[in-house]
Amino acid sequence: MKRVAYLIVLLAVAAAFYVYAYPRLAGKTEVADAQQSAPARGGKGGGFTISVVAAVAQKQTLPITKSAVGFVEPVQTVVLRARATGTVTAVNVVEGQMVKAGDVLFKLDDSAEQATIAKDQAQIAKDQANAKSAQATLERDQDLIKKSVIPQSTLDADIAASDAAKATVTVDQAQLKSDQITLGYMTITAPIAGRVGTVNTSIGNVVQSTDSSAGGLLTITPLNPLRVSFTVAESDLDSFRQALAGGKAVPVAIRAPDDTADRAKGTLSFIDSSVDTSSGTIVLKADIDNKDNKLWPGQYVTATTQLGSYDNVTTVPLVAIQESDQGPYVWKIGADGKSMRTPVQVVASIGNDAIVGNAIKPGDHVVTEGQLRLANGMSVKQTIAPAQPAAAGAAAQAATAAGGSNSAMSAAPGAASPAGASASGRGSGGGSSGAAGGSGASGNS
Q1: Containing structural domain, residue 359
Q2: Is pLDDT of 22 > 60?
Q3: What average pLDDT score do residues 366-375 get?
Q4: Are 196 and 97 in contact (CB under 8 A)?
Q5: CB 399 within 8 A of CB 259
Q6: What's this model's pTM, rounded to 2 decimal places?
Q7: How many CB atoms lie within 10 A of CB 107?
Q8: For the chain, is the Cβ count within 10 Å smaller at the N or the C terminus?
Q9: pLDDT digits (tens, 9 = 90+) for 124-173
Q10: Whole-angstrom Cα distance, residue 435 to residue 445?
Q11: Does residue 23 sit in helix, strand or coil?
Q12: Comparing C-alpha atoms, which of 320, 351, 368, 347 is closest to residue 428?
């Protein structure tokens, strides 16, 4: 019994200690921990700084571009066919060879045509002799008719015979010319300059003038210049039409799927006459300089068309833009090294850059990494990130474009895509708006 009573007393003392003493000791420990950890949590006015990465706002001119997937096509392609039936006696071309207009590619057996030419020449000589004889007879009878030695009917017959003989010579000469043309068909030359495709015949084969096969004897495809055909959405049609209407060349840059730089450049040359009602797209074409043979007919590429530009606008890295229910904002670093939450108007984004309104000036520092740890008025230690050219960011975005039509420029909510004309964006708080033009664009917050 004593042991039980002793155990009960011991448990009561332990319970009393837990109820009264432990909370007080624990509270002191938490206060000490809070005091030690308060600076680490970034409290305002705690005498410490937050390390961030920042970028400097730039004043620059950015292109307004549209990107679309298309394919390369030749300006012209020739399917070479025989114009006369004959046996191939010589092949002077190999597959993949570059040829010039007039180069001899094939020779056909022309022995029959040579014999026909000889026959025609002999026939002409014979008929010319007959015509000469008929003319002599006519001249003799003209003298005799003056002396009334022969009747008029004889003279008339002589005139007819002489004219017939001359006409026969003319027919013979026409036949000779026709046979000479046929003889020319036995030598097959390149009608244009270009690259030879698959050669579909060889020595000893008989080629037919009636051949209608898809490949003919071979194909010749010029590789420079080439043309890129691509489609854009009907909603983009006005942008392209306005760009062409200015009378200036509209630049088009071409990249293959894995390219990190432009493979070739050209100019927009054609807009189709109608929109495809089944897909809501329209076909455009650009003439491309391919002097280095970096493009190939049939190759799929991304065509990026520059429709205009935003001139002398203020830009910040796109990663500096933060979103909230009140609108976009950036963390701006003041001259005193303090952070300031600054609402901005995002006019448009191009590549890795965002065009902002007047709330940010060129030379201002904005935070690109570490925004989540900031509050207004905090002291910050900034590391300036190196500036990247805007063109590189836009090109990188264009290189990853896929689908019928993708824009390297996206406007802010409420902004209209500029067709070399204007774009508008909604400032934070919804109270202000701005516009940026294709030439001399500006933004107002």
Answers
A1: 50-62+310-396+405-437
A2: no
A3: 92
A4: yes
A5: yes
A6: 0.65
A7: 17
A8: N
A9: 999 999 999 999 988 888 888 887 888 888 888 989 999 999 999 999 99
A10: 10
A11: helix
A12: 347
